[in-house]
Amino acid sequence: MTLAIDIQHRLGTFLLDARFATRGGLVALFGRSGAGKTSLVNAIAGLIHPDRGSVTLGGVPLVDTQRGIFVPRHKRRLGYVFQEGRLFPHLTARQNLLYGRWFAPSAERREDLHRVVDLLGIGPLLDRRPGRLSGGEKQRVAIGRALLASPRLLLMDEPLASLDEARKAEILPYIERLRDESKVPIVYVSHSVAEVARLASTIVLLSEGKVAAVGATSEIMHRLDLFPLTGRAEAGAIVEATVESHDERFGLTELRSRAGLWKLPRLDASPGTRLRLRVRARDVMLARSAPADLSALNVLPGVVADIAAREGPIVEIRLDCNGEALLARLTRYSVERLGLAPGVPVYALVKSVALDRRSLSGPIASRSGADADADDR
Amino acid sequence: MDWMTLSPEEWTAVRLSLKVATVATLVSLPFGIAIAMVLARGRFGGLSLLNGLVLMPLILPPVVTGYILLILFGRRGPIGAFLADHFGIVFSFRWTGAALACGVMGFPLLVRAIRLSIEGVDARLEEAAGTLGANRAWVFATVTLPLIVPGIIAGMILCFAKAMGEFGATITFVSNIPGETQTLPSAIYTFTQVPGGDVGALRLTLVSIAIAMLALVASELMARLANRRLDIE
């Protein structure tokens, strides 16, 4: 379903001026706090009446100021998962879940309570009121409530922002399942590179109320010129990989990507499973010749594709490893010492232990997720 | 303990007071909720004017309020004549007039309690209900209303208590007719004006105290019940 947005809206001294169109999948509205992400989602949901412009979903206008169209929020049939959950405190989890379903036209009630309860693992919580749910549980109920309204589009405004790392790790797999199993397109607001890299199929990068870039997740994440906006410290490449085999003796898993073979701590995923691997630029070292006697297990040959022109001691470099992009973060000193320039062949070195559960997304059994959580701390 | 037994006339005054206060509270409730909603959530210029108008009976001397009611709702008053001619509703020198006077005097207390509790409801919950498909009326019925029940109870108790004790506006508007408009305070006042009426005044005073205590206890119980449903976080 196509979502086309073209709006201008002034909030005090802040001007939101956004124009983009996307189709299906999980679209991440990504940018720093104050970039206008929430305002944009509120405009889609009908909580803001934009000064000028239009919002169109699947060809149907939700707002069109020129034609005088403004569909009120309760008729838009969107599911909105708020940052703070906003569960109704006087209703049980079950009543919260069924609230929106009741207002959906019966012919359009696609979602079934049992399926959603299963998907989100909230069966044991149904008879509790929100006051007796943990933050993570509340957020899962909030997601279920939005889903059960059988929305045409699911809006998620930083649904994990108020949660700690363990709770995030608890909910992320459910959002992945949602993205892969339900047909509902999702607009997902976040300022976390890790979340966006893991979840998004398309990124809309916002900066100071304007759209700075729109594109496929790996494309946006690999653009060196966007690092000031996407966040330099957390920058990393996204590698599409397939599980090749397991090494039982050392507890390792081999992944195959276009760049070559990757060795990681053992994953619970059968051979053939497709995964998305995030390799942070700061975890990548470069060498001019093939290194010998090295502990790092991942050695991938490639060519320097681009070096970010930037002041300061640290420089980002994009490599082309047999068509797969990798990013490396080096000191300017090393870049000069190694004589790195576009076209120079190099070897990228990545420690296996730098690639943990958080750098992976895909259908991996939850046991490994719990293991990785423990490793994280 | 013979002196404790209420005479039939005194019983009449007690029953009348209870009837007047109950009717005054119940009839003003829907208006009170509506006005409180407008005051708490409304966004228009005349808001402070409306607020002042609602609070007026609290500030004006009750006799003045009673006299204004007499002018407006009396048999020949503009509103009184209209209601009498078209709907057969007569206020002057009837118990309905006493209920009107008590309702008007209790109204500011009712509105204030409900308004405060509406302002305590997170408007973002109402927004969330809207995105889930509920129109304004449904949002009010399923989210706002259940969350303000404690405030409504508190407002009703205050209004009821005020109505039970109302004297100045009532006696000015509908006078002091035994069996029709003589409420508890009027009856006590009458007793104090006749020789040997002290015992009767004392009896009715005790009754007043008992009713006030009962109302207070009932409100505590209901507020506790309403709060328990909300498991405050």
Strand order in the largest sheet of chain A: 7-8-9-3-10-11
Distance between the termini of chain A: 40 Å
Estimate what percentage of residues of chain A fall within beta strands.
35-45%
The overall pLDDT average of chain A reads 86
Q: Which class do the helix and strand fractions of chain B yield? A: mainly alpha
Chain pair with largest interface: A-B, 30 and 22 residues
| Mean pLDDT score of chain B | 89
Number of domains of chain B: 1
Shape of chain A: globular
Shape of chain B: globular
Count the DSSP helices of chain A.
10
Oligomer description: heterodimer
CATH architecture of the largest domain in chain A: 3-Layer(aba) Sandwich
CATH architecture of chain B: Orthogonal Bundle
The level-1 CATH class of the largest domain in chain A = Alpha Beta
Name the beta content range of chain B: under 5%
**Radius of gyration of chain A in whole Å, from Cα?**
22 Å
pLDDT < 50 runs, ≥5 residues of chain A: 365-377
Describe this protein with a few key phrases.
heterodimer, A: 377 residues, alpha+beta, Rossmann fold, OB fold (Dihydrolipoamide Acetyltransferase, E2P), 6-stranded mixed sheet, 5-stranded antiparallel sheet, 10 helices, 36% strand, globular, B: mainly alpha, 77% helix
